[in-house]
């Protein structure tokens, strides 16, 4: 139908254009709703963050914080799926020993799931164990000096990733435990390892054996023998549950070293007990 | 209406449209267009009213205003005395849109159940009503077939059945035979006449003049949004200054006498000839004859639907 | 044709102004409409994903393997729920208009608000059933995998003389905690709540949109803005910006940050019943506001 330009005056203003009017009303209502709900939303979000139900990205450089927040916001619940893909890519690069790529893909995984501390542990483990082991025997780096330098570089990277992550997860003990193990096994620094194991005690995810590890590392720390003996003897005296081969071995060694009177010494271990161990099955060791 | 009135109150008209006007704004401009311009008409209870006009004349807009799918810019429409914006008014209306498409995943029976439930029907009464309607529109054989497998004529018939599901007092039909073959068209026409016999008011929009002429008591002719003519069909179609005499078994001598008489009286004899049947009638007669022949020859029809109609 | 039975009903009962029965009829029709559109094929994709994840060896620890299955399952559920809420809601109303089914529905004694609610609940019904099926599937896979991992870990740990039974139990408990847990129902509920809000918002958009594509694009944008909203708020709260216009605009867009609670629940946190009730009320208020505005727009829309 063609428009009729000679429309009678009585129809003027009759065609209703509700869309514009209604859109304005809707915007106004949405704005009012936004203004009102803020009074409910903001404290609710604070409470949910307090109850560990919402991710609160801790204070960091603004750029990192914004980047992480943007990923959190935009990808939302799809992040686990993408994180799996990123992690698969990292594993793929690990198989060809491309450590820069492993680091990059773990970086993406962490960006996607900053709340999962396990990714930080995995990255540190790859750096401090796998990359380090690779450079220990790599034919691509003929110079022994260079290989030693690379080994230290990747070990330090692993520790640095953990140091960055620990303040983000102050209640998790696994990160400290991982750091202590690197200090113990790769840096051969029992004093620092003992101190780090001790920091892990009482935190979430830390099992009973870590308490013993504190003593084992103290026992290796020069100048800390007396403290180590007291610590391990206390554990020994707690009962049968702690009468484990490594603990008995360390106590006996310290008794001899500190010349503890025979009467105060613990009984000799059974002769057929296996050798000492300071590892726990299930923990990843390359 | 006064309670002290001596005469019983007359039933309200099925549709009462007064000064019905619809003005549409034009998109992206300040202009506007009058689709329906001060249209007034009444459809009395039990009457079949046909609104005819070419495409784009305002028929569908008028119908939507009657159904309450659009609000008038000016004027009012009432259905049995209730405003069309009142949900209760729609209990009285059954509507069949042009080329209806229902949920294709539903069967015929499920479609009627769905619309019946929307009208508040439940349980056994709904089941019975579904059976009645499927029988009425001759779709019992397709009751459990999905609508995706229905022909156009079958869709039109199930559409008519859904329009009738809540026993409305007014049925609004928009081009009810659009795209339907002559046999299906005839069935729908017969159904409209049956509805009329039942006292149901019918408001029919069509541009098929012959069809309207066959079933409607009154018609309105709408063009460019204005109702140009309106009234009983006989009055509208009668030519005031002409008279038609139809003879059977008239001899040539009788016709000569009539011609002479007309001439003597000073009137003009415009034509003498044999009345013709309509093409539709001719087509239907041939189809029926063919079916009868096939039956007598003992042949079985490959078409399960539609069955032959008298 | 048989003799019709069309005696008019002079004492026709007045149809109720608001009828849950009619809403349910419309919701059930929408449900079957969407199911017939092969919506549940997504479940096959989900099943492949979850079974695949349970067999992928990323050298994870036992806990990680389980938490990855959980995270992946709920990631897929989350994606399905909100994306389906947007796309399905954006399609159902325009399709009714296109097929003129809307004419026949609205010409029956059906108030328009009931039509909108019917569509809304129909979409939610599909999402609820799909989420339920996905939750069940992921639960079965999680428990099956958990049983295997516990058995393997026990055998491995018991070989070590330096591990106490208490340590072994602690390790096994840690694995056990990563399996299926009733708290995951609350995570699925929050995913459903977010989908409900998205469906309500999409209904609002579709009442004035001219095409399904436009509705889908606006719906997705709405979702992204809703999730990005909190970045801006946090940024401002730290004094990072003082743009008044942006602050004004932020009040119009929703804040979906609260629905991210499901991630922490999937990861291991537990939400107290009153917290769940408050989040449910929060989502309910959003739905009511969006649906009321959608009704306002749809109430005199002309077709």
**Average residue pLDDT of chain B:** 83
Q: Which second-level CATH architecture of the largest domain in chain B applies?
A: 3-Layer(aba) Sandwich
The most extensive interface, with participating residues per chain, is: A-C, 67 and 74 residues
Q: What is the rounded distance between the termini of chain A? A: 81 Å
**Percent of residues of chain A in helical segments?**
55-70%
Describe how the helices and strands are arranged.
The complex is a heterotrimer of chains A (286), B (310) and C (303).
Chain A: H1 18-50, H2 62-75, H3 79-95, H4 99-112, H5 117-137, H6 144-165, H7 174-185, H8 190-200, H9 209-220, H10 225-237, H11 245-257
Chain B: E1 15-25, E2 32-43, E3 48-52, H1 59-67, E4 74-79, E5 82-83, E6 93-96, H2 108-118, H3 123-136, H4 152-163, E7 170-174, H5 182-197, E8 201-206, H6 209-215, E9 218-223, E10 226-232, H7 233-237, H8 252-265, H9 279-296
Parallel strand pairs in B: 3-8, 3-9, 6-7, 7-8
Antiparallel strand pairs in B: 1-2, 1-4, 4-5, 9-10
Helix pairs in contact in B: 2-3, 2-4
Chain C: H1 20-35, H2 41-55, H3 62-98, H4 101-106, H5 112-158, H6 165-177, H7 183-206, H8 212-237, H9 244-252, H10 261-267, H11 273-298
Helix pairs in contact in C: 1-5, 2-3, 2-5, 3-5, 3-7, 3-8, 5-6, 5-7, 5-11, 7-8, 7-10, 7-11
Features:
heterotrimer, A: 286 residues, mainly alpha, 2 domains, 11 helices, 64% helix, 0% strand, disordered N terminus, disordered C terminus, B: 310 residues, alpha/beta, Rossmann fold, 6-stranded mixed beta sheet, 9 helices, globular
Give an overview of the whole structure:
The complex is a heterotrimer of chains A (286), B (310) and C (303). Chain A is mainly alpha-helical and 286 residues long. Chain A has 2 domains: 65-169, no CATH class; 186-281. Chain A has helices at 18-50, 62-75, 79-95, 99-112, 117-137, 144-165, 174-185, 190-200, 209-220, 225-237, 245-257. In chain A, helix 9 (209-220) runs antiparallel to helix 10. Chain A is elongated. Mean pLDDT of chain A is 82; it is low at 1-5 and 275-286. Chain B is α/β, with parallel strands linked by helices. Chain B folds into 2 domains: 15-237, Rossmann fold (3-Layer(aba) Sandwich); 246-310, no CATH class. Chain B is 34% helix and 21% strand. In chain B, a hairpin with a 2-residue loop joins strand 4 and strand 5 (82-83). Chain B is globular. Chain B starts with 14 loop residues before the first strand and ends in a 14-residue tail after the last helix. The relative contact order of chain B is 0.14. Chain C is mostly helical. Chain C has one domain (20-298). In chain C, helix 2 (41-55) packs antiparallel against helix 3 and helix 5 (112-158) runs antiparallel to helix 6 (165-177). Chains in contact: A-B, A-C, B-C. At the A-C interface, helix 1, helix 2 and helix 3 of A face helix 3, helix 5, helix 6, helix 8 and helix 9 of C.
């Amino acid at each position: 139908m063609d428009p009729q330009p000679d429309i009678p005056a009585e129809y003027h203003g009759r065609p209703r254009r509700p869309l514009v009017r209604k859109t304005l009303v809707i915007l106004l209502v949405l704005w009012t709703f936004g203004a009102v709900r803020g009074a409910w939303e903001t404290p609710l979000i604070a409470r949910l963050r307090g109850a560990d139900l919402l991710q609160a990205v801790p204070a960091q450089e603004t750029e990192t914080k914004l980047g992480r927040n943007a990923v959190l916001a935009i990808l939302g619940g799809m992040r686990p799926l993408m994180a799996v893909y990123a992690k698969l890519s990292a594993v793929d690069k690990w198989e060809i020993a491309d450590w820069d790529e492993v680091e990059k893909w773990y970086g993406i995984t962490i960006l996607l799931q900053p709340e999962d501390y396990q990714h930080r542990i995995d990255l540190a483990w790859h750096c401090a164990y796998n990359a380090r082991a690779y450079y220990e025997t790599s034919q691509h780096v003929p110079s022994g000096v260079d290989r030693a330098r690379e080994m230290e570089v990747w070990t330090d990277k692993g520790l640095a990733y953990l140091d960055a992550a620990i303040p983000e997860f102050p209640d998790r003990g696994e990160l400290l435990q991982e750091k202590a193990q690197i200090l113990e096994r790769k840096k051969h620094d029992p004093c620092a390892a003992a101190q780090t194991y001790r920091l892990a005690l009482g935190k979430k995810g830390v099992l009973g054996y870590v308490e013993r590890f504190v003593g084992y590392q103290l026992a290796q720390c020069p100048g800390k023998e007396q403290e180590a003996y007291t610590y391990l003897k206390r554990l020994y005296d707690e009962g049968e549950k702690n009468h484990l081969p490594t603990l008995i071995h360390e106590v006996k060694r310290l008794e001899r070293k500190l010349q503890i009177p025979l009467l105060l010494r613990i009984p000799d271990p059974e002769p057929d007990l296996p050798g000492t161990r300071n590892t726990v099955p299930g923990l990843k060791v390359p | 209406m006064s309670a002290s009135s001596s005469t019983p109150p007359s039933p309200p008209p099925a549709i009462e449209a007064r000064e019905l006007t619809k003005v549409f704004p034009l998109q992206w401009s300040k202009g506007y267009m009058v689709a329906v311009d001060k249209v007034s008409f009444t459809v009395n209870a039990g009457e079949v009213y046909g609104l005819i006009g070419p495409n784009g004349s305002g028929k569908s807009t008028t119908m939507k205003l009657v159904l309450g799918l659009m609000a008038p810019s000016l004027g009012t429409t009432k259905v049995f005395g209730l405003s069309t914006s009142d949900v209760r008014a729609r209990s009285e209306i059954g509507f069949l849109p042009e080329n209806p498409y229902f949920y294709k995943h539903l069967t015929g029976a499920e479609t009627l159940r769905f619309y019946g439930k929307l009208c508040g029907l439940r349980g056994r009464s709904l089941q019975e009503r579904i059976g009645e309607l499927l029988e009425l529109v001759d779709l019992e054989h397709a009751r459990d077939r999905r609508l995706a497998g229905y022909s156009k004529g079958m869709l039109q018939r199930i559409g008519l059945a859904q329009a009738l599901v809540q026993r409305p007092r007014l049925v609004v039909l928009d081009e009810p035979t659009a795209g339907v073959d002559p046999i299906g068209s005839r069935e729908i026409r017969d159904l409209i006449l049956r509805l009329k016999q039942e006292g149901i008011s019918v408001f029919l929009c069509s541009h098929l003049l012959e069809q309207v002429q066959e079933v409607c008591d009154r018609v309105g002719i709408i063009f460019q949004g204005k109702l140009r003519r309106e009234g009983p069909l006989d009055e509208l179609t009668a030519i005031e200054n002409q008279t038609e005499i139809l003879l059977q078994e008239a001899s040539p001598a009788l016709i000569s006498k009539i011609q002479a008489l007309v001439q003597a009286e000073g009137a003009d004899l415009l034509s003498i000839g044999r009345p013709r049947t309509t093409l539709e009638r001719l087509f239907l007669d041939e189809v029926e004859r063919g079916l009868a022949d096939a039956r007598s020859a003992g042949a079985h029809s490959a078409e399960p639907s539609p069955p032959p109609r008298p | 044709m048989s003799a019709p039975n069309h005696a008019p009903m002079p004492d026709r009962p007045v149809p109720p102004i608001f009828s849950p029965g009619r809403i349910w009829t419309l919701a059930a029709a929408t449900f079957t409409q969407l199911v017939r559109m092969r919506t549940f094929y997504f479940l096959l994709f989900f099943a492949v994903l979850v079974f695949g994840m349970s067999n992928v060896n990323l050298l994870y620890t036992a806990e990680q393997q389980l938490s990855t299955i959980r995270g992946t399952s709920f990631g897929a559920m989350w994606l399905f729920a909100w994306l389906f809420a947007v796309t399905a809601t954006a399609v159902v109303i325009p399709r009714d208009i296109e097929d003129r089914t809307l004419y026949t529905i609205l010409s029956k004694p059906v108030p328009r608000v009931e039509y909108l609610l019917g569509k809304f609940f129909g979409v939610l019904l599909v999402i609820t059933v799909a989420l339920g099926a996905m939750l069940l599937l992921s639960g079965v896979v999680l428990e099956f995998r958990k049983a295997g991992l516990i058995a393997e870990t026990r055998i491995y740990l018991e070989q070590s003389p330096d591990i106490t039974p208490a340590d072994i139990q602690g390790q096994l408990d840690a694995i056990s905690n990563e399996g299926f847990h009733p708290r995951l129902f609350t995570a699925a509920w929050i995913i459903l709540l977010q989908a409900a809000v998205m469906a309500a918002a999409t209904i609002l958009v579709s009442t004035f949109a001219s095409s399904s594509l436009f509705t889908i694009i606006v719906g997705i944008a709405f979702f992204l803005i809703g999730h990005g909203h909190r970045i801006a708020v946090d940024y401002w709260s730290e004094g990072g910006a003082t743009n008044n216009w942006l602050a004004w605009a932020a009040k119009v867009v929703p804040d979906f940050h609260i629905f991210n609670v499901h991630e922490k629940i999937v990861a291991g946190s537990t939400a107290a019943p009153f917290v769940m009730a408050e989040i449910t009320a929060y989502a309910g208020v959003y739905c009511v506001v969006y649906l009321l505005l959608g009704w306002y727009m749809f109430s005199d829309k002309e077709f």
